[in-house]
From TrEMBL:
It holds the Pfam family Peripla_BP_4. The keyword Signal applies. This is Sugar ABC transporter substrate-binding protein. InterPro entries: Bact_Solute-Bind_Prot2 (IPR050555), Peripla_BP_I (IPR028082), SBP_2_dom (IPR025997). It is found in: Cell envelope. It comes from the Bacteria. Its main location: other. PANTHER family: D-XYLOSE-BINDING PERIPLASMIC PROTEIN (PTHR30036:SF1). It comes from Microtetraspora malaysiensis.
């Protein structure tokens, strides 16, 4: 399902605000007036520490809804990693008459009562990126999260093997937020690969996916294990990898051991080229956002397309669309991230990275 990341033209018209960090978008005001009152689709994202939500998920989702349903309105809210704030945002959207909820939950277990409120109003719900547990709903759209963890674990193991250090020291594992079910999947996948093959010195579940907390965890690990005994870091995403790298720099590391990541953040891609981070997981966010938009519009029209997969959330088998992740090291950036126009070469290749970009075939 790999498609080029196309530029988004025509800024959406923003007017009004819902609870918290929220906005209402009318995809095409002139067509909306001609076509009459449209349906309202509410999109909720969990946080802004990870750059993807505001830079990619939201604009891609809004653009696709605008293409498929010009007279639909979009209520958008970012919860800033605050579960109470997200609850208020969802309740506000229900009050404002949302016809479909697309929800990336801050706390995937705590939002079941909100989904139940929507069900009582006969409003369909799509779990976006993070599986919501404890209740049945219409769809789940995400990536194969166990596979993400396996790719991270395999990349780290391959790097340690190439360095001849797999059995020479210990690794540190920085997992994501314990309130995000995806974190448990990433963790499971990494352990599937690494258990019995490397020694795990310290392991953390990082609240809020916070880079600052990851930095503190890494500092604790360095103190406990010893700087020279850490041979690799399994970080579940790029933001936490940045925290781990900051801690290691402060501890006096001249050369970084292999460090994994996820999300292909611009800073992470640059760190990979510069040799500070070993790899990232590239997620085709366009495919995820557009599939969710397609489903939301279909549900708004009273349709329910068939899903190719099912994922059990502990209560029900949720019809699901699971997309494929891609592991990216320096030699694969040109053929994935740049080829798909996720970033332009000019965005990635600063003057300091000119030689590294040339070596990686990025032009």
């Amino acid at each position: 399902m790999r498609r080029g990341m196309l530029a988004i033209s025509g800024a959406a018209l923003l007017f009004g605000a819902a609870c918290g960090n929220s906005s209402t978008t009318e995809a095409n005001p002139s067509e909306a007036k001609a076509g009459g009152a449209g349906k309202t689709i509410a999109l909720f994202t969990p946080e802004s520490k990870t750059t993807r939500y505001e830079a990619f998920d939201r604009p891609l989702f809004e653009a696709k809804v605008g293409e498929l349903c010009p007279d639909c309105k979009i209520l958008y809210s970012n919860a800033d990693q605050d579960a109470v704030k997200q609850q208020q945002q969802v309740e506000a959207a229900l009050t404002q008459g949302a016809d479909v909820l697309v929800l990336d939950a801050v706390d995937a277990a705590a939002v079941a009562p909100l989904v139940n409120q929507a069900k009582q109003k006969k409003i369909p719900v799509i779990a976006y990126d993070r599986l919501i547990s404890g209740i049945d709903y219409e769809y789940f759209v995400s990536f194969n999260n166990v596979r993400v963890g396996e790719m991270q674990g395999q990349a780290l193991l391959d790097a340690l093997t190439a360095n001849g250090t797999a059995d020479k020291g210990e690794i540190v594992m920085l997992h994501g937020s314990p309130t995000d079910p995806s974190s448990a999947d990433y963790k499971k996948g990494a352990h599937n690969v690494l258990d019995g093959k490397v020694k795990i010195g310290r392991e953390f579940d990082t609240p809020d996916w916070s880079p600052d907390k990851a930095q503190q965890e890494m500092e604790q690990a360095i103190t406990a294990i010893g700087r020279d005994n850490i041979v690799g870091v399994l970080s579940a995403n790029d933001g936490m990898a940045s925290g781990a790298i900051a801690a290691m720099k402060r501890a006096g590391y001249k050369t970084m051991p292999p460090i994994t990541g996820q999300d292909a953040e611009l800073a992470a891609v640059q760190r990979i080229l510069g040799g500070e981070q070993y790899m990232t997981i590239y997620l085709n966010i366009r495919a995820e956002a557009e599939k969710s938009a397609e489903l939301a519009v279909a549900l708004a029209k009273g349709e329910k397309p068939a899903a190719p997969d099912k994922v059990n959330n502990g209560t029900a088998d949720i019809p699901s669309f699971l997309l494929d992740p891609v592991a990216v090291t320096a030699d694969k950036i040109a053929d994935t991230i740049i080829k798909d126009d996720f970033y332009k070469a000019s965005d990635v290749c600063t003057p300091e990275l000119k030689d590294a970009c040339a070596k990686a075939g990025i032009q």
